[in-house]
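Appendix B, Record 12. Input sequence as logged:
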Amino acid sequence: MSDPHDRGHPRPWRVLAEDHLQHCKVFDVHRATMQSPTTGGTHPFYRIESPAWVNVVALTAAEELVMVRQFRHGARAVTLEIPGGLVDPGESPAEAAARELLEETGYRAGRLESLGSLNPNPALFGNRCHMQLALDCEWAGAIQNSETEETAVELLPLDALHETVRAGGIDHALVVAALYAFELWRAGAGRERG
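Logged structural output:
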């Protein structure tokens, strides 16, 4: 009797055809006809192509997280998030993080560190979301929102972060992922200091 859990490793599907369906302001939609390596059958799959994104975990010297409240059209609700946005052509993730932080909050980072990157949802997206840590942030000037953005800054004491997430006060999955990467960084930084 064979083990039902021992199925080997999944194999990549083969692209037979690809069509560009729609160009939107911040992403493109593609349909690919793919062939199964197991059955040989073909199926359509949809993929969203977008530039890379960046999320910024920004911390002041007083150990406050620099957060933004903004209306999100997908959820049709005002959310509490960390600053973030698209990485512009020619920008590094760190440059995009510094720009987005300043534009959305008016805060400038003393220094930046990478917290890594991840795929937002491998079932649909091909891009990466870069997570940057901005340390020693100081207020530097007015918020510089575009005509489609409106952000309000909130400083969240670091010791209130866990309860805020647990209570659902922060529920954007990529924001929670960046905050978790920050927690891993803090745990590692604590070991290095001790």
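Residues 173-193 form the longest helix (21 residues).
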